[in-house]
Structure formats: structure tokens, C-alpha cells
Automatic annotation (TrEMBL):
Belongs to the class I-like SAM-binding methyltransferase superfamily. rRNA adenine N(6)-methyltransferase family. Residues 1-18 have a biased composition (Low complexity). The keyword Transferase applies. Keywords: Methyltransferase, RNA-binding, rRNA processing, S-adenosyl-L-methionine, Transferase. The keyword rRNA processing applies. This is rRNA adenine N(6)-methyltransferase. GO terms for molecular function: RNA binding; rRNA (adenine-N6,N6-)-dimethyltransferase activity. Its EC number is 2.1.1.-. It comes from Liquidambar formosana. It comes from the Eukaryota. Pfam families: RrnaAD. Residues 74-258 form the Ribosomal RNA adenine methylase transferase N-terminal domain. PROSITE patterns: RRNA_A_DIMETH (PS01131), SAM_RNA_A_N6_MT (PS51689). Residues 1-31 are annotated as: Disordered.
Length: 333
């Protein structure tokens, strides 16, 4: 394994390195916003991250989406956006060198960190060996059943009298598992109140889309809006990561709905998602054609009419509420 000292940016002895990444740039379009939060802690992740990687001779692995956060103020903002307080229980996916973990623990949270890379899991375990408020699982998050881990963590806090009914998720995740993470976490409103993720900027903008007539509108948007209220918070320019990715990132919050607040679909959620997926099947067909295998085109036209939607409606023109109404009318037909 080659020594990383040659490939990493130099570590300056000063506490504010000259090469320190710039703060986030202003919002780049009408759908984005920049959040300004004063950084109060003096923790320098630029140093901590590079030292941790150097100490292990670790070359960041592309396949694991290892782009480490170098800017502690971004980590501070993630924690602040999630409003992490003393006594909170937080799930962190992919702690890496532990730069975000450090701020979460510092804020008083008990953290469950799930890290796929055994070297990074060992590193983060070692780094936080002196605290009992961090549990590290070396697992692939996409294959891991986190319910039982989270429930036992919440219960143990409860027994100690530190009641935290809901946990939170705060993570800088590898971009390539964004959809899996969202699919797994958003229906877990009984465990998590809020999911705060650092995502690829393009994905972030796509995920918060609840409007119509864009080619980016997909069943995942219906899914996201069914289970949560998503909000694009602020953009994080690529210069803040090591190694630098080819794209910018952004922070998105998903406020999870409770089961009682889910849209009132008259069948099972899986049948509803089958209707939504069928609607989007093929190349942007009209609904009366794409839903033909569920019921006749006449019945769909009638349902569209009763829902107050044009007979020529296409899936990307429907909001979550439109889909719920149409689905309920189709089921009745
Ligand atoms: C983008 S890095 C973020 C690291 C750290 N949180 C930071 O902000 O610097 C993503 C981390 O997720 C880990 N990872 C990649 N795939 C994973 C998976 N399927 N499950 C859990 N961790 C994963 C990587 O090894 C890496 O440590």
C-alpha cells in the first residue's frame, strides 16, 4: 500500500491550513438555499481526517464512495440542521475517519455508526475508545437490519431515564447508495423523526422534487413524499472533500411522517406503489395506456375524470395527492 503522504494535501502546522477548503458557496438556483450557521467549536477535521488516513496508510476507495469531509463547519451545520441535542440517539452511516461522529458525540448524542470498510470501522472504534456513547458495527448498511439495533439503543436510554422516543439519522453517505438508504430509512417513522443526509447535489435536487412536468420526476419522488417532507438545505461544493469528487454535494433533510399521517391509500402500500411504478413504466406514456393492465382504459379515463384530471394525463404531471386520489378511484372501479 503506497504511503498517502504523497497523495494527500500537505498538513500545515498551523491550526488554519492555507489549503483549508472554502466555506459553502451561495445558493445556485431558486430551488436551493444557503444556510449560515456560526461555527463555535475549534475542531479541525482537515487535520484529524488526514492524520487518521495517514496513520493507517489508507488510500480512499472509490468503490466505497470514500470522499472524506475536510471542513468541520459543514459537519457542524449537518449536526445543527438535525438539531442534535444532549441525550439524542443518532444513526450515522459511513463514519469514515469519524470527523462527523466527533461532532455528534460532542453534541451529547449516543451514536450507532455503521461502516462497511473494516479498516475504517477499526479506526473509528480506536479513535473513540474512551467514550461509551458510540457503537460501531462493521456492516454494509444496505444489507443490515437496523430496527433491532436502534430499538435496543432507544430502550436502553429509556431505562436510564434519558427518554428519546425517536432517533435521528445524520450522515455523509457514499453517493452510490443514496437511493437504497432513502428507501430503507424513510418508512421508519416509528423509529426516526428526521433523516439528514449529505448527497450528490443533483440527487438532492431530484429527491426534493414534488412538482410536475420534469423528466426527473420518478416513482422515488412519490415514495419520498409519501413517507416524508423533504427539504433541500444547502449546497456543499466539491472542494470540501478529499479526494475531491467530480460533482458537488448538498444537504437534504427528510422529516419522517408517522403512520397515521401517511396519505390515505385504500389498499396496501405495496399495491399503491405498484400502481405508481406501472404509471411510470415505459417512455412517459399517458396514464390510460400505462395502467391498462390494472384496469380498462375506460375505467382509467373515468377515474381520471372523477379525480379532476385530464384524460391525456401523464405520470409526471401528477402530485402524490393526485396519485392517491386516482389510485383510490381505480380500486373502486
Ligand atoms: C463519503 S464517505 C464519508 C466519511 C465520513 N462520514 C466523512 O464525512 O468524512 C462514506 C463512508 O461510508 C462508508 N461506506 C461505503 N459504503 C457503505 C455501506 N454500504 N455501508 C456502510 N458504510 C459504507 C465508506 O467506507 C466511507 O467511510
Amino acid at each position: 500500500m503506497p504511503c498517502l503522504l504523497h497523495s494527500l494535501p500537505p498538513i500545515s502546522p498551523s491550526t488554519t491550513p492555507k489549503t483549508r477548503p472554502k466555506p459553502p458557496l451561495p445558493a445556485h438556483n431558486s430551488r436551493t438555499r444557503t444556510l449560515h450557521i456560526t461555527c463555535t467549536r475549534s475542531q479541525d477535521d482537515f487535520h484529524a481526517t488526514l492524520k487518521a488516513l495517514n496513520s493507517r496508510n489508507r488510500t480512499p476507495r472509490k468503490s466505497l464512495g470514500q470522499h472524506y469531509m475536510l471542513n468541520s463547519s459543514i459537519n457542524e451545520q449537518l449536526v445543527s440542521v438535525a438539531d442534535v441535542k444532549d441525550g439524542d440517539v443518532v444513526l450515522e452511516i459511513g463514519p469514515g475517519t469519524g470527523s462527523l461522529t466527533n461532532i455528534l458525540v460532542d453534541a451529547g448524542a449516543t451514536v450507532l455508526a455503521i461502516e462497511k470498510d473494516p479498516h475504517m470501522a477499526a479506526l473509528v472504534r480506536e479513535r473513540f475508545a474512551s467514550t461509551d456513547r458510540l457503537k460501531v458495527l462493521q456492516e454494509d448498511f444496505t444489507k443490515c437490519h437496523i430496527n433491532s439495533h436502534m430499538l435496543s439503543l432507544l430502550e436502553s436510554r429509556d431505562l436510564l431515564g434519558q427518554k428519546s422516543r425517536f432517533a435521528k439519522v445524520v450522515s455523509n453517505i457514499p453517493f452510490n447508495i443514496s437511493t437504497d438508504v432513502v428507501r430503507q430509512l424513510l418508512p421508519m417513522g416509528d423509529i426516526f423523526s428526521e433523516v439528514v443526509l449529505l448527497l450528490q447535489d443533483e440527487t438532492a435536487m431530484r429527491f426534493v422534487e414534488s412538482s410536475l412536468r420534469t423528466s426527473e420526476y420518478r416513482p422515488i419522488n412519490i415514495f419520498i413524499n409519501f413517507y416524508s417532507d423533504p427539504e433541500y438545505k444547502f449546497k456543499v461544493p466539491r472542494e470540501n472533500f478529499f479526494p475531491q469528487p467530480n460533482v458537488d454535494a448538498a444537504v437534504v433533510t427528510f422529516k419522517l411522517k408517522q403512520t397515521a399521517d401517511y396519505p390515505p391509500v385504500s389498499t396496501t402500500k405495496s399495491f399503491f406503489s405498484m400502481v405508481v411504478n406501472s404509471a411510470f413504466n415505459g417512455k412517459r406514456k399517458m396514464l390510460r395506456r400505462s395502467l391498462q393492465h390494472i384496469c380498462t382504459s375506460l375505467e382509467i379515463e373515468e377515474a381520471l375524470g372523477n379525480a379532476g384530471l385530464p384524460a391525456t394525463s401523464r405520470p409526471e404531471e401528477l402530485t402524490l395527492d393526485d396519485f392517491v386520489r386516482l389510485h383510490n378511484l381505480i380500486v373502486k372501479a
